[in-house]
Amino acid sequence: MTLLLGIVIFGIYSAALLAIGGVGFTLQFGVTNVLNLSFGSILTASIFLEYGLTGHSTNIWIAMAVGAASGAVVSLLIGHVVVGAYIRRGASGFSIAMVTIAISLMLQFGLEAIQGPDIYAYAASTNSTMNIGGVVVSSGQLTTIIVAVVAMAAVHLLLRMTKLGLAMRATAADVTLTRSCGVSPARTRAVAWLVSGALCGLCGVFLGIGEGSFSSTTGSDFFITLAAAAVLGGIGKPYGAMLGALVIGITSQAAAAVISPSYKSIAAWIILIAVLVVRPQGIMAEFAAERELVA
Amino acid sequence: MSTGMIFYLSGLAILLGINLIAIWGLDLQFGLAGINNFAYIVFQAAGGYAAALLALKPASAYGSFETYIGGFNLPFPLPLIGAAAVGGLLAVPVGLIALQRLRADYQAMAMLVLSLIATGLAQAQTGLVNGPAGLALIPQPLVGAFPSSPLGYHWIFLGLTAVCCALTWWVARGISRSPYGRLLRAVRESESAVSALGRNPNALRMTVLIAGGAIAGLSGGLLVEYVTAWGPSSWLYPETFLFLTALIVGGKGNLAGGALGALIVPIGIVELTRRLPAFGYPGMIDSLDWVAIGACLLLFLWFRPNGLIPERKQMFRERSTERTGSRMREAFAGRRTEAR
Prior knowledge:
The complex is a heterodimer of chains A (295) and B (340).
Chain A: H1 2-32, H2 39-53, H3 60-88, H4 93-115, E1 120-121, E2 129-132, E3 135-138, H5 139-161, H6 163-173, H7 175-180, H8 185-211, E4 213-214, H9 218-232, H10 238-258, H11 264-278, H12 280-287
Antiparallel strand pairs in A: 1-4, 2-3
Chain B: H1 3-32, H2 40-55, H3 78-98, H4 104-124, H5 126-129, H6 150-177, H7 179-189, H8 191-196, H9 201-227, H10 238-250, H11 255-271, H12 284-303, H13 319-339
């Protein structure tokens, strides 16, 4: 019973992390139609920046502010400036994937060169813990869950209640029509990269502080799990990503508890592949239509 | 030239050969048929493991300091043939999963995930191929066959690599120039046109995935027999981009482009920089190599997306029509003389 409760509680904690990042990834994909394979490296860069700029601060407010800001800036530079330039030059969908991979390699190994043999770890926080039916949960994990819920509510409000959100949803649905309504797609896309980066940075600092230590590959490993959540929910759909995060989070915790901790990520990745094999037409509905690549 | 230098240069030549084989195999899939195989390194890895397990004695023969399945102690050239076979066989499940009608960038991501799953499984299943530590003490081929010094053996291995290179070149050139190669180019350029002509594009992709996979397996087998050790850290997913960058820099879709890419990227950027005077901590140059590879990729995609040696436009002489044409000309000329 405690095992089951543990799987559910830690599954929800994993889901919270996945949802923050997954919604950021899927939102940007929906609006810009660019498969951003450098998302994981942006995540790592945000942790490195937070760690460096704040002097390893684990103060959750400072960490959140700096992490989100770092992610937003890096994401805007990569997405709007670099990737945007290649798209305006007429690069194909595959070339764009290669561009994001190239950026990802440069970022990841650049950070590895900076880190070197050093171990980057946050000071062990004297977190208070809570006992829920025999499962010990730290206050940091609870904070992550609360922040995720707030962030999801904020994304919901942004998409449903603001003009900007309407513009983003409209750009995701039909660029030409949106442009003819007098909405600047370029500005909307820049905002999408910014919001996506901010969520990515937020996810990064919670991941870094939650795990206690991090390295240059932290983000790229986590990214695929996060992409699994996004794909499961139907990529490009923020609400789908939230649901996907919950499924992936609980499944990966169950795999870790039942099989072995080394299967935590593998389980999520196999789900990602299974979605592709079993329901290609489900994803086809989203993917088959060759939409215009937009900068 | 000092013996050390000769040793180094011949080793470099062996590595160049092994990379050439791998890059030509990828070129068949990516350059010729347009398959975005982001899991290519897994085929090389599978070949490497196959060669290792076929050549090694059972684990107990080494005091069981590593655990693995098999250990068949087979003589040369069986491990290499096994490596190619396993590489080709692996293409079947990978193809069934990833060769669906997915958007190009999405297919690439599915491949990337397969690569990560393979690494994860190799690390998690410690009994299969010794987990994260990897295999060591892999026997080299033909060691006892000729009485030779270490340098002499280097030459023998170089000869073996050269033979494999020549074989790969011959196969890749044959495929590229055959009607089958023409079909693969057609799949790359216009899938719907191939379908309209009554050919199944996915079946064609599958065949070239198998052919390229077998070549990757062979290169993996050679590499493992050369370095005598193989573990998950040798084939992390970025290694695929080493080969892809080589193709994009050198020029995809032609063998000369692949060869130039092999010389510039895996040898020039990765191997030769190891000779630079050391700076920073040990391993810093390796990290910076990858930054350089990413930068190369970005620069070439911007300035020269077709590479240094672009693929030449293929002109196929239709022999039968030409013959008909000349016969018609003769007939026409004959009629004119008759008319006169």
